[in-house]
Model the fold of this input.
Amino acid sequence: MSTTASGPARRTTAELEALPLAPPAATGLSEVVRRRYLLSMLVRNTIKSRYQGTVLGWVWSYLQPAIRFCMFYFLFQVMIGRGAGMENFAIHLFSGMVIVHFFTETFNGGTQSLVQNRSLITKLPVPREMFPVARMLVAAWHTVPMLVILVVPCVWLGWRPDPVGMAAALLGFTLTAALGLALGLLFSVGNVFMRDIGKVAQTLTQFVTFSVPMMYPYTLVYERFGEPIASWYLLNPMAEAVLLIQRGFWTGTTSDPDATAAVHLPDHLFTRGLVMTAIAFVLLVVSQRIFARLEARVPERL
Done:
């Protein structure tokens, strides 16, 4: 059956699920880009389903992070005085939350993407990598409101975008996207064969919140455990991503950004970020190849 590019894009998920079984399609991330009209359809349907039946709809994507920011500000900075001696600790905390949210949504969503779309996988001749990629794009869409909520108080506190800071933030998001998608691909196909993999992914993402300098500064790790442990700590790519986005936003809200970066950020931040991003892309290639080797058995296991 031949269709135009506009045809499938207008179909609903229910209509696609009703189609007859389809033969396997070409695979690979490049094929996902070529079928971007179907990819955009999956992203739109996933976003719509999240807010289906709500009165405020997409407004919740802004309201929830705004409430979360206010709660963390009141709890950590007003109530218990966390971050004493650090300027604008709430910005330090929330900037880390933005990147951690993007990673956990990409990783967990990608892990569940094949199981949750089992009916589409057996009916549509599409590259199955499309489903983890779609979940990464959905995670990115939900991260944008959090960025808006982050930027507003930053500007109010005197932050202005600078080229180095924006490069740091972009590098942090690139590292997170590549790592999250690589793990999403790997765990999604593993979750088809063993559903415990999904629980493993959820458990791993719980550790991310406490293994990055978000609720505490990096200097605390260095002061408490010394240089050897701090060096091992920095091998965590998500810790690196959080430090990069803090360089992009939080340091610019302090009275002396250069001094803040010198005290609270480790040396060679960009060098490590570039190395870890390159490793994340290598992991993405390896994960895609493993995915391609196993995906032929996915329909029968679903």
The mean pLDDT is 82. The chain has 15 helices and no strands. Residues 36-47+58-301 form one domain.
